[in-house]
Design a protein that fits this description.
By secondary structure, the protein is mainly α. The chain has helices at 2-10, 14-21, 30-36, 40-71, 81-89, 104-121, 127-145, 148-168, 173-198, 201-218, 238-242, 263-270, 274-291, 295-307, 322-335, and strands at 93-94, 97-98, 247-248, 253-254. It has 15 helices and 4 strands. The N and C termini lie far apart (47 Å). The relative contact order is 0.13.
Length: 349
């Protein structure tokens, strides 16, 4: 409907409009995923693939970042203009590594899917292989990818997983107290890290820009009546799509971006007609939670799903592939009654 509406409202060719809107149809993968990913054996294969390629991606980006920062050598290939511009500028340095963010989505979901699988069924590869994968992926996310929303979300996922493990193992109250004290001791360290990451001048400027983006796109909510900006092309409607600061030099683009502001970016495209889409997703997700026998795992996926709406929405083009996977896993867990007894026993796997 929005594709057709964009065609009539903006007099933009249907083919040109489809070149912008096509990626939303990736959500339809939910139906074959939900049908085919119907056993833990299948999910094991899927998670192993994520683990393998997530590790390769993370490790290659760590090497690239190190060689660029230390020796100014471009190793392998930086696959996006954003990667190249960000990495070679050396303006975003952390612990001696320059920022290369393009692999953050895949690496983040590698961690999420492995955590959920391990809580349900045990190790994906083996104890030490899984530990190595987690180390590489975490190192990339925090020192090379430097995507704040994923850093916060993955910390939330890990904290929930640790809490579930403590509950599951029925640890003695004294041991729980010691773990709680250690966790409290980590709070000042975590706060120091977060303040360095979020409250320095460049990050503060970034937050200010996000606020301006939200204000701009929210003002366009009723721009086309029942939808907002739709699927207009930035080469034709650049100033409208990216705001008054828009400037495209050919190699880089200056201006507001729908992909930066989570669910607000979704409404910046869909406007009024996006409301039933979001309400349906919320309703069905929480219905899954209510009927699930394994609410612990569903809680993690709900945090992943709705936590992303603040900044890195799965309805953006670069992340939408992961949305049907998360929904299919949530459906499977809710409908499945053969999750490993370790969820309620004393050991994993």
């Amino acid at each position: 409907m929005v594709t057709i509406g964009t065609f009539f409202k903006f007099k933009q060719g249907i083919f040109q409009t489809a070149l912008v809107s096509y990626y939303f149809f990736i959500v339809l993968l939910y139906f074959p995923f939900a049908e085919e990913f119907n056993s833990w054996n299948v999910w094991h294969d899927v998670v192993r693939l994520f683990g393998l390629f997530g590790t390769i991606l993370a490790f290659s980006k760590i090497l690239q970042s190190f060689f660029l920062a230390k020796f100014h050598i471009l190793l392998l290939y930086l696959n996006t203009n954003n990667d190249y511009t960000t990495a070679t500028s050396l303006n975003h340095m952390l612990a001696g590594f320059t920022r290369i963010p393009s692999a953050a989505d895949f690496v983040y979901f590698t961690i999420v899917f492995m955590v959920v699988y391990e809580l349900a069924r045990g190790f994906v590869f083996s104890k030490y292989k899984d530990m190595f994968i987690y180390f590489v992926c975490f190192f990339y996310l925090f020192f090379v990818g430097q995507t704040r929303s994923y850093q916060l979300l993955v910390l939330a996922v890990i904290l929930i997983a640790l809490f579930l493990e403590i509950r599951k193992h029925r640890l003695a109250n004294f041991v729980k107290l010691i773990i709680g004290i250690l966790a409290l001791c980590l709070v000042p360290i975590l706060w120091h890290f977060v303040s360095k990451l979020f409250l320095n001048s460049s990050r503060s400027i970034s937050i200010t820009i996000r606020q301006e983006e939200i204000s701009y796109y929210w003002s366009k909510f009723f721009y086309s009546g029942w939808f907002s900006l739709g699927f207009i092309r930035d080469d034709t409607f650049g100033t409208l799509l990216h705001g008054p600061r828009f400037n495209n030099t050919g190699t880089s683009m200056i201006g507001y971006a729908l992909d930066d502001i989570g669910i607000f970016g979704f409404f910046g495209r869909f406007g009024l007609i996006g409301i039933p889409v979001v309400l349906t997703m919320i309703s069905d997700s929480f219905n899954n939670f209510k009927k699930s026998k394994y609410k612990n795992l569903t809680v993690i996926l709900l945090v992943v799903l709705f936590g992303s709406w603040l900044s890195t929405s799965f309805l953006d083009s670069q992340r939408i592939f992961y949305l049907p996977l998360v929904l299919a896993m949530m459906d499977f867990i809710s409908a499945n009654s053969s999750v490993n007894d370790s969820l309620e026993g004393d050991t994993i796997g």
